[in-house]
Amino acid sequence: MTWKTIFIFVVLATFIILLVGWLTSIGVLPISHVINYSPAEMSFIRVWTRLAITIGIILPTIAFIVWFKSPEVRKIYRI
């Protein structure tokens, strides 16, 4: 797999997503624009989204601090 294969995949996936969005917006595809979640489902999604954002900020920050303070961790080959 080369960089060209990955690039073509990303371009095609982006094109398909944009095409589906455009066809939905003009009414060709019978897909609803809004998903009607219940209040309990919305609460569940909010909690997990906040948790994911928090973990996604805290863990990389801790890893960066450990990486920055300890030169031993930065060594790939320990000779």
Brief rundown of the structure:
The protein is 73% helix and 0% strand.
Distance between the termini: 32 Å
Q: Uncertain spans, ≥5 residues at pLDDT below 50?
A: none
**What's the mean pLDDT score?**
87
- Total strand count, please? 0
Number of domains: 2
Structural class: mainly alpha
Largest sheet properties: none
Radius of gyration: 22 Å
- Residue share in helix: over 70%
Tell me about this structure.
- The protein is an all-alpha fold.
- The chain folds into two domains: 1-34; 37-79.
- The protein contains three helices and no strands.
- It has helices at residues 3-25, 39-69, 71-74.
- The radius of gyration is 22 Å and the shape is flat.
Provide tags for this entry:
single chain; 79 residues; mainly alpha; 2 domains; 0% strand
What layout of secondary structure does this protein have?
Layout: H1 3-25, H2 39-69, H3 71-74
